[in-house]
Amino acid sequence: MEKSTVTSLTQETSATTINASTDSTALTAESEELPSLRQTLLNYVGMYGLTETLINRLSDDELDYAKKVSFHFVNQDISGTARMITKLYGEKPIPEDSYSTDYSTLTIDDLKNYLPQIRLSLIYVYDLNSDVVNNLSDQTLVDLINQVKVDYANQNYPSDVRGDYGLASMADKIKANDYTSINQSAESVSSDTTNTESTLQTTTSSSKKATTSSSTEHKKGIFPSTGEKKSVLFTIIGIILLSLVSIFIIKNKKK
Question: Could you tell me which residue ranges the Gram-positive cocci surface proteins LPxTG domain spans (predicted)?
Answer without folding.
Answer: 223-255
